[in-house]
Structures are given as structure tokens and as C-alpha cells.
Hints:
Layout: H1 10-20, H2 25-30, E1 35-37, E2 42-45, E3 48-50, H3 52-70, H4 75-99
Antiparallel strand pairs: 1-2, 2-3
Helix pairs in contact: 3-4
Amino acid sequence: MAIRKNFNSREDIIQALAVSHGANEQDLKKFSESKWDSGTGTYYSHGKMFSKMSIFRAKNYFADQAAKYNKMATSEAKEMAQMFDLAYEAIDAIERTGSSGDTK
């Protein structure tokens, strides 16, 4: 007789299948979905944890770099400014999405 288990989510099923094929805990962390913990402001993604303070610092860094490169007249500097703006906006989007409730 097969052992039955109630799975609460698609991720539970995927993890159970991965374990049955030899995946260990590190493997599961590496491929787990991203999650925002609105209570602490922490973002978890692919086995990495980003604290509220590190997210704040990253946003400030990207905003400062974008402003610095936007003051330069070269096309390369403008391209760099765009990349820093994109990074800032990506972090901001994660925060906005997460602040409306935990997401996966």
C-alpha cells in the first residue's frame, strides 16, 4: 500500500518529487520559489536571504549611482544610469508587491 500525504501547495509536490529522486536540503533551497516576509521586510530567493537593511542599502546605492551617471554626458554613462535605474525599480517592485501581502 502506498503512503499518502496531503500536499498544501504545488511547491510541496515538487519538493517531494525532488527528494524521491535524491535531492537534498541544499538542492531544495537552490530551486525554491522566492518569498517576501512582510513582517520582517526580508526577501528570500533561491536559498539566499536579503534583510530589510540590505535591501534599503542596495536601493540607496543604485539610486546614488544612477544620479551620478545621469550627470555625465556620454552615452555609456547614460546606459549605466539606465541599468542602475532598472535595478532600483526591480527592488522597489519586489517591495511593493511584498508589502501588499506575502508572495511566492
